Amino acid sequence: MFSHFNMQEIKFEPSAMCDAIDANITFSESQIGQGDIICYQKSSKSLSHHAYPSVQIFFNRIHDLKAVVPGEQMKILALEEEVARLKRQSDLQTEKANIECQRFKCERDNAVRQLNELQDQNPQIFLEFPITNLLQATQNFSDLCKVGDTEYGCVYKGIIHDTTVAIKLSRSDTLFQQEVSILRQGRHPNIVNCIGKCSEVSALVYEWLPKGNLQDHIVCAHGSPPLSWQIRTQIIGEICSALLFLHSREPHALVHGDLRPCNILVDANFRSKICNFGMLTLFLQPGDHQPALTARLPYLEPELLTTGELTPLSDVYSLGVIILCLLTGLPPLIIAKKVSEALVNNSLHTLIDKSAGNWPYVQSQAVSRHWS
Questions:
Q1: Does residue 203 share a domain with residue 221?
Q2: Which of 122, 152, 181 is at the close of a domain?
Q3: Looking at residue 188, which CATH number applies to its domain?
Q4: In this protein, which residues make up the domain named Protein kinase (predicted)?
């Protein structure tokens, strides 16, 4: 009966295939031929749509559908071709965008490389201040303006061009030239910023950091409140960042050599910046006067006292002592022994500086074990 139809054009879902039709309900026996394939509905009561009253009407319906389907298929094919075209266009645009992105990335990398090369070839340039600016800023280097006095030099607080600055008079021209040479290596957010210099009197002009040095905050000098554990951990991270910058310099690593809380300054937002780095190298050279070791001894790597050789590991040792000081608040001379004993006895909690707040104990224990 359906031999003249191309059966590949009509597809049925498995759920649509049913048992043979009941001839007594829908069709007469004369209308059913041998081997017919016909649509079946079990009962007119269960039908959700109109039941075909005859096979001929069913045939007509199929014929009508076959006349419509090719047109619909053409629409589908056209839509599929349009989708494919848009996909090809999208893929092409994506490929072009990736090529452009790669080109911009290469240009950026080249620009960064050229900038680094220029910075290496052209050291940082400092402003050259006339001595009159310094004399006026410090009231002729009056003791009233003096805020520090170390082996490195005297430090004065002053104002130049309406900006508060720190002015350091170096002890000697040799020290001055050494520090200038190191500062020319580049800037870092956690290294005190040098604004300029006055070669006439071997003076350096630095940014002013109003919160003083870290040592005063550890011992709560001048009535300053204890630092919170959040600020202490922030400072530890900042010191690590500064040391990483110094130690990664090429062709030779820069070593601070005198890393102590008094050489770590704090700005108004409690951001820490190290200063006086690289100076101890000069002190340890033959022919130069030796620095006072009493205050430095707890922070000095033991091997340094026998070999006199400063390495990046010398700074790492000093950093460890500073971390333990921030963690416990104990004096640096006894801190390593005390912390080691506490770790063995599982009593570190008794050493933690509670004035800093509720330290994360697990992290504190891990840090102490690593650095003690």
A1: no
A2: 122
A3: 3.30.200.20
A4: 141-372
Using alpha carbons, select from 273, 148, 261 the residue that is nearest to residue 207: 273
For strands 163-170 and 194-198, give the pairing: unpaired
Place of tokens 């017919």: 36
Amino acid symbol at 220: C
Contact 252, 270 (CB under 8 A): no
Q: What string of H, E and C letters represents the secondary structure of 46-72?
A: HCCCCCCCCHHHHHHHHHHHHHHHHHH
Closest by CA position to 201, among listed 140, 288, 289: 140
Query: In the chain, how many domains are there?
Result: 3
Alpha-carbon span 145 to 357, nearest angstrom? 36
Could you report the per-residue pLDDT of 123-139, keeping only the tens digit for each? 567 789 999 999 999 99
User: What pLDDT is attached to residue 167?
Assistant: 96
Of 253, 242, 143, 128, nearest to 194 (Cα)? 128
Q: Distance between CA atoms of 354 and 94, rounded to whole angstroms?
A: 57
**In 10 A of CB 327, how many CB atoms?**
26
Indicate if the pLDDT at residue 7 is higher than 80.
no
Look up residue 365 and give its two tokens: 């224990």
Range of the domain at 132: 127-207
User: Alpha helix locations (H) across 122-172?
Assistant: 131-137
- 224: enclosing H helix or E strand: none
Beta-carbon contacts of 69 under 8 Å, excluding residues fewer than 6 positions away, are 9
Active-site pick, 258, 288, 315, 353: 258
Q: Are residues 331 and 234 part of one domain? A: yes
371 or 78, which is more confident?
78
Work out the angle between the directed axes of helices 361-371 and 332-344 (0-180°, nearest 10): 110
CA dist 288 and 308 (Å) reads 13
The verdict on whether 258 is a catalytic residue reads: yes
% of the chain beyond a pLDDT of 90: 33
Planar angle of CA 166, 168, 172, nearest 5 degrees: 175
Helices H, strands E: what count in the chain? 10, 8
Pairwise pLDDT comparison (72 vs 298), residue with the higher score: 298
CB-based contact 256:274 (threshold 8 Å): yes
CATH number, domain containing residue 295: 1.10.510.10
